[in-house]
Amino acid sequence: MGNVGASINSENETTHSISEDLQRPLVTLPQGRLKGIVQTDGFPQPVECFLGCAYAQPPVGDLRFRPPLPVEPSSAIFDASEYGRAAPGNPLIPPRIPLVYGEDCLTVNVFRPRLESSTGPLLPVAVYIHGGAFNRGNSSMHNTASMVAWSEEPFIAVSFNYRVGALGFLPSKKAAEEGILNLGFQDQRLLLRWVQENIHAFGGDKNNVTLIGLSAGAISIGHLILHYSDENPGPFHRAIIESGSATTRDCRPYDSKIIEQYFADFLAEVGCPQDLTAHDTFAYLRKLPLSTITGAQDAVFNKYKPTMQWAFRPVIDGDIIRQPPLESWHRGQYYKIPLMTGFCTNEGSLYVDRKLSHPEQFTQLMQTLLPGLPGGDIARLNALYPDPLTGDPTYQDVRTGEDIGPEYMRAEAAYGQYALIAPVRQTAHLASSMAGAPPVYLYHWDVFTTLYGGAAHADNLGYETFDRATTSQSHGQKEVAGMFHAYMTSFICHGGNPNKLRGRYNHRPTWEPYTPDRPLTMILGKGNRELIGGDVGTPAELTLEACYDEQCKFWWARTKFTQQ
InterPro entries this protein is in (predicted)? Predict the structure, then answer.
C-alpha cells in the first residue's frame, strides 16, 4: 500500500480523531480496508477523512522514472489518519501541517460529510489537483475538509499528490525513447482511474466528477481537457480552472533546444555521463540516492528561476499532450464540458523582481521568455506597457522606493498577462466560441492581501475552501469567501451551475456565462483593499469587463512562440 501507513490491529490501535468520542470510519476497497478519522475543527458538520491512501505502487527503486502501476489487492486494514509523504520539492508556501517528503508520494485523500444514513443517493465528487509550478506543492495545501464541511449541500472531495520536479517531469529525447515523458501527468491519469474504480465505496458518484485545479493544477486540467474529447470522454464531467490553462507560459516539444539543455544540466549535476544510451542513463539515475536527485533538481531549477524559465515542466509528448495546445483548440479537439475559470489581478507579483529599475531589464525579461518574438513586437510591448520613466502615468507606482523599482509595475502586469491572465481568458474565449458550447463562467479575483503583492497568484486558495484563517480576518473577507465558496460548491453539486445552491449566501449576484459576444466576468472582491488599510469594496459584481483586452489579444496572437 506504499505510504498509506502501517497496517493496524484492534488491540494496539491509536485514536487519531480530532473528536475522539466519534467512531473512526472504515471503507473497504480491493486494495484493503481504510480506517479514517473524523475532523470537526469548528466545522458546522463533521467530515470523515481518509488520508494518505495509496493509489499507485511506490515509485521507488526500479520503479523510479517509470510509469505508475496500480495498487495490488489486499485484505489488510490500513491506518488512513495522516497525509502521505509530499513529493520532493522546496515548499511553495508555509505548510498548513508538518510535511514529510519522500519518493513514496503517490497517495490520495478522500473527504466526505458524516451523513446520518449511508443508503442515500451517491454524492457529487470534486477532485483537486494541487499547484506548484510542477516543481513543488502537495495536496495538503488545500483545506479540502473545510470546503466540504461548509458546503450547503453534500459532496465528496478528493485530493492527491503526484510526482513533480525531476522525478515527475524530466523530458528529453532519451526520456522519450524510454516512454517516460510527463510521468506526473501519468500519475494524474491513474488517480482519475482510481476514482472511477473506488469512489462509490465512499458514497461518491463516478459519473458526476468535477476537476478543480490552481496554477499547475489548472494547467494540468487544461491539458486533460485537450487530451480527451467528446468522442473519447474523460473520467470527469466539468472543471474549475484557476489561474492557469493549457496555453499558460510555454509547452514545448520534448526535443526542443531548451528542454535538452535542462536535461544536460541535470545529468551534469548528478554526475551522469552524457554519452550513455537512454536505457543506461535512466538505469544510472535509478541507482542514485534521493538526495542527489533532489539536490540536482534544486540546482537546475534555481539556475533558470531568475529569468522565470522553469525546468521540469510538461512537454508535447504525442500522448497526453498530442500536439501544440493551441492547435487542439483551433481544431475543436477538446472535451466540451461546463467550465469555471478565472485569474487574479496581479498574477505576476510573485514572480517578477520587485527591484527592476531600468527599461533594458524589462526588454531583456520579455526577450528571454519569448526568444522567438520579432523585434517589432518589443516596440509594441513598450506601447502596451508604457515605460513610467518616460512620464507616462499608466504604470507609475506610488510604492516606488528602496523596496520596489520603477519598472516593476509594468513588468508585473506584462508577465502576469502573458503567463496567466491572457491564457485564462483565451480558454474562456475558445471554449465558448463553438455553437452549442456548454457554459463557461469567468471570474476576476481582486482582493488585495498585501501592498506589494496586490491580488496575487493563488491568493484565492483560502477563500474557496472557506478556511477559518481567511474568514476570521474580518466580515468583509468572510463575505467574499462565502460567495466564492457558494459559487464553486454550487457548480460541483448542480452540474456546473454556480447559482442554484442557495443557503447562507443566497444574496450573491446571479452569475451569467461568458460568451465572445458578451464577455461577462464576475469580479470577486472588487476594489477590496481592506487588508492593506483601504475600502471593503464589493464582494461580487458581474460586469462586461474590458480591461486587458488589447494586451490579451497581443498575447493570444503570439501563443505559437511558446509552443515551439
Answer: AB_hydrolase_fold, CarbesteraseB, Carboxylesterase_B_AS, Carboxylesterase_B_CS, Type-B_Carboxylest/Lipase
Give the structural domain span for 16.
2-214
Q: Identify whether 311 is part of a domain.
A: no
Q: Element (H or E) spanning 423, and its range? A: helix 422-431
Q: What is the pLDDT of residue 11?
A: 30
Return all residues near 272 (Cβ < 8 A) that are at least 6 apart: 281, 284, 285
Three cell numbers, residue 8? 493496524
Query: What's the whole-model pTM score?
Result: 0.94
> CA geometry: angle at 424 spanning 420 and 430, to 5°?
145
Cα-Cα-Cα-Cα dihedral of 306, 307, 313, 314, to 10°? 160
Residues facing 352 on adjacent strands: none
- The answer on 534 and 407 residing in a single domain is yes
Return d(Cα 34, Cα 16) in angstroms, integer.
14
In sequence order, the β-bridge partners of residue 113 are 47
Helix, strand, coil shares of the chain, percent, nearest 5, are 35, 15, 50
**253 within domain boundaries:** no
What are the pLDDT digits (tens) for 281-330?
999 999 999 999 999 999 999 999 888 888 999 999 999 999 999 999 99
Report helix, strand or coil for 536: coil
Please give the grid coordinates belonging to residue 59: 515509485
Q: Which residue has the cell 445552491?
A: 501
